[in-house]
Amino acid sequence: MAAFVLERVIAAPPSAVFAASLDPGLHVRSMARYGETMVEAPAGGAFTEGSTVTWRARHFGIPFRLRSVVFDIDPPHGFSDRQLSGPFRDFLHEHVFEEHPRGTLMRDTITFRSPFGPIGRIVDRLFMREYMRRLISERNDLPASEIEATPPE
């Protein structure tokens, strides 16, 4: 399995960062560059325990669909999502939010495996891990800037 961890400090309380991370609309806006849309949105318009969503996006010029489920929601500490069907053999994204002197430490742990056995492992090692690391880091830029720009209530 390929894996990486990203950490970012956001100048806002964990509850605000947690809530923004569960906002499907914010996720779509953060991935607009890739034409990512929701083919199937979560019931009620927000991610809750057991919510499923189907995403459509284009990476490497190839259109993809990925269906995922959100689980282990523990406000405001974290949650996880994993692929149910899509381009990966396995994909798990763990989101953790911890208090930090400057606000919230947001930690993303991603583990994934591309299909096609040994060829997929080579692809993961040669470029997919770095591509995914950049993608998730870029995805985190918009929520961080929007949360920090919002005055505290």
Sequence-ordered SSE layout with sheet pairings:
Elements lengths: L1 E9 L3 H8 L2 H7 L6 E4 L11 E8 L2 E13 L3 E8 L4 E11 L2 E11 L3 H33 L4
Antiparallel strand pairs: 1-7, 2-3, 3-4, 4-5, 5-6, 6-7
In short:
This protein has 153 residues and is α+β, with helices and mostly antiparallel strands. It has helices at 14-21, 24-30, 117-149, and strands spanning 2-10, 37-40, 52-59, 62-74, 78-85, 90-100, 103-113.
The 3D shape can be described as globular
Q: What is the number of helical segments per DSSP (H or I, 4+ residues)?
A: 3
Strand order of the largest sheet: 1-7-6-5-4-3-2
The protein's oligomeric status is single chain
User: What percentage of amino acids are in beta strands?
Assistant: 35-45%
From N to C, what is the helix and strand string? EHHEEEEEEH
Structural class: alpha+beta
* Helical residue percent band: 25-40%
Tally the beta strands. Answer: 7
Beginning-to-end CA distance, first to last residue? 42 Å
Task: Pick out the low-confidence regions.
Answer: none
Give the rounded overall mean pLDDT. Answer: 93
What radius of gyration results from the CA coordinates?
A: 15 Å
Largest sheet: 7 strands, antiparallel
Walk me through the structure.
This protein is of the alpha+beta class. 31% of the residues lie in helices and 42% in strands. It contains three helices and seven strands. Helix 2 (24-30) packs across helix 3. The longest helix is centred in the C-terminal third of the chain and has 33 residues, at 117-149.
